[in-house]
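Entry 14. Two folds queued back to back today. First construct below, sequence then structure tokens.
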Amino acid sequence: MTNTITQTELITTDPSSRRRGRGDAGGRGWRTRGSAMVFHVLAIAVLVVILYPAAWMVMSSFKPGNEIIGSVSLVPETFSLDNYATAFAGIGGVSFWTFVVNSLILAVASVVGVVLSCSVTAYAFARIRFRGSKVFFLCMIATMLLPFHVVIIPQYIVFNQLDMINTYWPLLLGKFLAADAFFVFLMIQFIRGLPRDLDEAARIDGAGHARTFTAVILPLMRPALVTSSIFAFIWSWNDFFGPLLYLKDPGMYTMPLALRLYVDQTSTSDYGAQMAMAILALVPVVLFFLAFQRYLVAGVATEGLKG
């Protein structure tokens, strides 16, 4: 019997070929590690560029006012807590805690209004068939394309005729009337991803739309509700133009307006206190996000389980 040796066997039994194979694998390994190292260096560089302004703001809150303007140095030459003492003392005869409470009232009320009104509206568009539903849906989507500045004057005229200027109603009424089309659209898309078998099972048990929404759909909407709540809270807390337009009494000012009070182009500006106030204004937003982050992550993790 003739013994035949294949080409593969020759390659695997040749020591020089094995050394070349190990050399190729080693080269690929070095190239992979080199690419990973370059990627991580670039990622860290981008992260430093993005976080540097925030770090500068934090460190500037501990600097005297004369060291803030015209300096990009991160480490303060003179470390001081006077800026925080000035911020806690308030400004214009209004205490710091008044600004905090006013902002919390608007932010929490905005979250409640968005969750209640937008969830109901989204259920109606996603699950109830009624005449003109597609037209109303298109009109709602069209409002997302309108710049906010287009409707400022008509809204101000309406609220002025209703004697609502210098109240919180102009800032909250739209939240309770599902005027935020973004949140409505977000919840509509989420509800459409839920199986209709749940609705049919509820109807077989004798549940109407109200019972189906509250007992079946609403508990499953927690990821969308948490996401909407986070955005509604942050947007309301950071809103500057709305309170500036409708609020006239300094005792009703929010944190963004309080930050503006420390900067005056006609007199002395306290940039140190403004930086300290900005840091204090970030604390509730960060705490709110951290409190609901686990629900948001859990919702994203179970998103693919619907079917």
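Second construct, same run, same settings:
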Amino acid sequence: MSSLKVAKALNNNVIIGMHPEHDEVVVIGKGIGFNRKPGDLMPLDSVEKLFILKSHEEQEQYKRLLPELDEKLIEVIGEVLHLVQLQAKKPLNEHILIALTDHIAFSINRHKQGITIHNPFLYETREIYPQEYKMAEQAVALIKDKMGVDLGEDEIGFVALHIYSAMTNQHISEVRKDSRLIADMVQVVETTLDYRIPLQSLDYSRLLTHLRFAIERVRRGEIVQEIYRLDKLLNEEYPEMYMLAWKLTKIMEKRLRKPVYPAEVSYLTMHLQRLSQRKEQGDNKP
């Protein structure tokens, strides 16, 4: 049976161990570090919450962060990440251990001081990242149950972005930029059409989803097949929506600093034309 060798017990709930395959790892669990000494062996099948920090810099960041944290919080975050890992069914970027630990600790401190931060992209986050949002809901509910602190709905959105970041190996700053970009493009659409798109409508959800996948395609440099006849037809039939779609793709190019294939204009034009028709019909129903 393979074993993990204890390198150092950081506190009662966290140890640094030497893994037979991954070298230095972080192991989190209630009381797991109590009376542990360097060199002690632990059967691997007894270790539930194990996190690999391959980067020496990240290991040191985590070690510096721990003394500032309540041991109960460390245990809860270990449970949160274990929950996310099980549902994600794929490896998470190792940085989430540090990023989410630091974020939640800071959020709890703000909550205790009565400081609330509004999440301007909450609705967009819920629509664009539904799987991650559900995980974040469970995470915030677990924190409330274990710590007696209700971080609220705004915080669910922030946690969801951290989870998405870890699942896609995309830095949290890039994920936030994408959320802001989508919100800004929706505002351009609403201003141009002079139409407030109903938040609960299927058209709004479709637009957000289309913009999200368009951004992901641009980031990946994915070639989008251009349909010349369709492009020509849309330009002739719906010139205003075509120009609006063109404007949105130019915003994407500027913000993402990557080229956007012309075909994106055609596909976006169709979504915008549907919204234009909704406005003309005065149909604000979902």
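Quick look at the second one. The radius of gyration is 23 Å. The mean pLDDT is 85.
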